[in-house]
Amino acid sequence: MKTYMIIMMVFCATHIMAQQSLDTIYANDTKNVALFFPEPIRQGITGSDNFVFTYNREKEQYFGLLQAKPGKESNLLVVNRNGAIFSYIVRYKKQLSKLNYFIPLSNSIGNEKPLVTDSIQVVTSEKNIDNRTYYYQKFCSYLLNRNQRIGRIKKRTQGIVLTVENVVFDKEELYFVIQIENNSTLDYDLNFLNLSIETRQKGKRKSLQRLHQEPIYKHRLPSKIAEGKTVKFIYVMPKFSLSEDRRAILELNEKDGERNIEMKLSHRYINNPN
Q: Which residues face 87 on adjacent strands?
């Protein structure tokens, strides 16, 4: 039965690969390339022995590690707990420029459930996604109307004020309630607002390493803040916690401008949300 399932999965992935081009992930034999998925990994398969994808088979986790030996390119097929299928071309590369991949649900090439000839299951799967988005919308609207703060987390530059008003834990997610005030005389065009995890490396040569965290959902994220205006929005992130040597970093970047802000959030705010 297990062999049959693998054959069906590979057949499905091959059929879909013929219809669309796949992204490429590079790996080598000296470093681990980490792949973080939106749902825990249930199964991971590589098409060639010179590529190894390891993940926790006993307790489902959100990430797996890829390594490669010199050889021809192959493919990687990963199935999440919810049945979402992800497929990538994998290649060996001696020098790697990227070691961490945060893979959004939108990168899924399909779901294994449609293999069953029952249209009701397909509709149910789509409905579950819609219900989750609907829940995020409603809960975010509730938080925006709620007068609650987690502390005075604020930073400013040249009339632009970035504030984290609240960090709320609900179900399996963290909700970051963020505010941007434009007290300047120029409109502020938002290029990006990124959330990263920064780790202090121990040893004689102290260094910092940052890992970008991709939101599951963004509520009312503006593209522009007019002069004299204030906007409030929410980033929904998968639940995480931080040790004392780690902290969260918010990077606010202006498009075609230099009014940029970098805010550091202590592990205390992340580990003790409202």
A: 77
Which residues, at least 6 apart from 137, have a Cβ–Cβ distance to it below 8 Å?
219
Rounded to whole angstroms, the Cα distance separating 120 from 129 reads 15
CB atoms closer than 10 angstroms to residue 8: 12
Copy the structure tokens of residue 72: 């021809």
User: What is the end-to-end Cα distance of the chain in Å, rounded?
Assistant: 46
Pairing between β-strand 33-36 and β-strand 100-102 as defined by DSSP bridges: parallel
Q: What are phi and psi of 238, to 5 degrees?
A: -60, 145
Q: Which three-class secondary structure state does DSSP give residue 178?
A: strand
71-90 residue pLDDT tens: 999 999 999 988 889 999 99
Predicted confidence (pLDDT) per residue in 123-173, tens digit: 555 555 567 888 899 899 999 988 888 988 999 999 999 999 999 999 899
What does DSSP say about strands 41-46 and 74-80: parallel, antiparallel, or unpaired? antiparallel
Burial track 86-101 (b if 16+ CB lie within 10 A, e otherwise): bbbbbbbbeeeeeeeb
How far apart CA 48 and CA 79 sit, in angstroms, is 18
CB contact at 8 A, 164 and 246: no
3-state secondary structure of 3: helix
Q: Give the list of residues 6+ apart from residue 95 with CB closer than 8 angstroms, or none.
A: 28
